[in-house]
Please model this.
Amino acid sequence: MNLQQLMRTLHTTNKSKIVLLVSDGLGGLPIEPGGGTELETASTPNLDKLAAENVCGLSIPLLPGITPGSGPGHLGLFGYDPLEVTIGRGVLEALGIDLELGPTDVAARGNFCTVNEQGELTDRRAGRIPTEVCARLVGMLRAIRIPGVDLVIEPVREYRFAAVFRGQELYGEVEDTDPQVTGVPALEPKARDAASEKTAQVAAEFIRQARRILNNEKPANMLMLRGFARRPPIPSMKELYGLNAAAIAVYPMYRGLARLVGMTVLPQAKNLAEEIEALRQNWDSFDFFFFHFKYTDSTGEDGNFPEKVKRIEELDRHIPQILELKPDVLIVTGDHSTPCLLKSHSWHPVPVLLAARTCRPDRVTSFGERECLYGGLGQVEAKYLLPLALGHAGRLQKFGA
Amino acid sequence: MNLQQLMRTLHTTNKSKIVLLVSDGLGGLPIEPGGGTELETASTPNLDKLAAENVCGLSIPLLPGITPGSGPGHLGLFGYDPLEVTIGRGVLEALGIDLELGPTDVAARGNFCTVNEQGELTDRRAGRIPTEVCARLVGMLRAIRIPGVDLVIEPVREYRFAAVFRGQELYGEVEDTDPQVTGVPALEPKARDAASEKTAQVAAEFIRQARRILNNEKPANMLMLRGFARRPPIPSMKELYGLNAAAIAVYPMYRGLARLVGMTVLPQAKNLAEEIEALRQNWDSFDFFFFHFKYTDSTGEDGNFPEKVKRIEELDRHIPQILELKPDVLIVTGDHSTPCLLKSHSWHPVPVLLAARTCRPDRVTSFGERECLYGGLGQVEAKYLLPLALGHAGRLQKFGA
Model:
């Protein structure tokens, strides 16, 4: 019996409320030898108090040494095995701009590019055209008509756009048309299996019409499609855990990931204050809240240590407002580390604290990487945090008699 | 997606250098209640400094409570699942004397033995004849001719020798001919599957000719064959990790294990100084160095606590010479524990330290079993140390977007 089967079998319902507060990229490293990490450096009286009174540990996003992208990082926190569920690049691109994806839609990532008179690629990114030009070109592409297929095309950023093909019998096993080099023509979309033949034909027709439409544009006179995929067929949090789950996030990517696991996505909040307000207003309507805070990741990616420290302090100041709502279980962690030292996601385990009436005390007195090493949760794979939350919420029956 | 698939997919290359220093049987136990372990007793200023400045933990060779032999112990450290890869005894015996094994060779371990006039075994080890006698008898056995099969026979020690059968269509699923008791004749080699019928026939013919050759010898007038096996079909470290790996070891068994995973085996060094010299001379030609130190195991097997302490101190004195080369990642650990108290390998987790620029500090201040319990690596299965090394070396891309 695996984790998902256990969850499906054992979950029960009650009136408890669970908050999963994901501070993206929370974990860090000292920026200089002998120093503290971003979290250790920040003044976090509220998180420290929670850590001292409850239970802490470190969350391993995937496996030791393996760095996750945002998709696998969040799937783990939602209790899914992030090594078993693959999210195609086209799907992530569509989620990243808040596009709704049905279970049979095929999404692809589009790139505008430049070709010469022989049709050979001269620039795979069309000189990184501005987003406004991308939006105008996407508007022109909306004239494309393919019988039996609804097309959704939206600009993303610079030369990138998202395309969704909606129709009967469309599958995602189609090769990229980007040859990854210049000096050759773009490739034809080729199906990797028989079921995806129709998608390949639809994509080919899309490209043929697009070529005509873009013919006189400069420099973006052609396009390529990559990462064809359906959304992964995963059971919802309702099915697995019996949870009515809601997602609160400023950035569309995270709302999209929440949508993949069947959460209700609350309207976009613009900042932490609005996110707290959304939590408060929807408190009675859901059992579980995924609450996403982006800026600990983006400041880490920028390598801006003082700014990441400030963002952690900003989050800490908002903790009392979450506690006022009296969640039965509050988890604070990140989907991965984003140390300023590395300016990128990393594999380092992420501090986690779990607050509930049923915590067994440990000797942690503040919330930080070194302290959490001595926490009662130990070093735990991220996918076990949700089962722990359900346990502490009284939402899991015992296994076996 | 399992660990090997991940490694295959995610690895990338750069100019980083990784050193895996395996102090065989490093972990220990106090020899008397209240005392320190061998490592805790040894004076190890260089390892202590590394431990204090980097990250430590304990490596679980297989699973809690399970003691590994040298084969699985090292396969784990090389990143393979030691419970999934089986190395036949014949293969280990051949590797242990530096024999080269092709992927289709079948190796077996040979024992000289004594039989009476009725052909019944009276001594399964032929009175443990001296190695010189073994060598003389093996010389005589080289007269054996089997059409279509090349034979390689080499003495090992006392009554033991190694036999390699090289030819078309030879497979290793053949039963031992040692009945494990005396008073009965040796068994016929019997194939366990159809593909191995030919090997069984070749082995039977080998035994028939050997019986004639040994007929007038005393006490070794017969032989038995055990542990028929091909080398396990495992992907190389180059395939899995993109590493050009080299092995430096005094003892042939460890060079052989390194050969199994595709490492380049550097010429035999006779002591630690020569091993260091080999490391230095080959520094520019490889990405990864497996550096084996044997004597912490052999002194443990002897139950010689003071001598194991001395060997650890000897290793410690050589650490600065390794650091002078400025490895990007240095791991120091063992393949298993060999406590003098037990005079044998044991299941106890092995202290591990990982030194790299990207280590997250922990509170460990010296390198020893008790200190490592509080290390940032936690207690980690040995097979994850190589992924961690690759992560710290910047040789793994992130998983998913």
Summary: The longest strand of chain A covers residues 106-115. Chain A touches chain B through 38 residues (CB under 8 Å). Chain A is about 30% helix and 20% strand. Chain A has two domains: 3-85+234-392, 92-229.
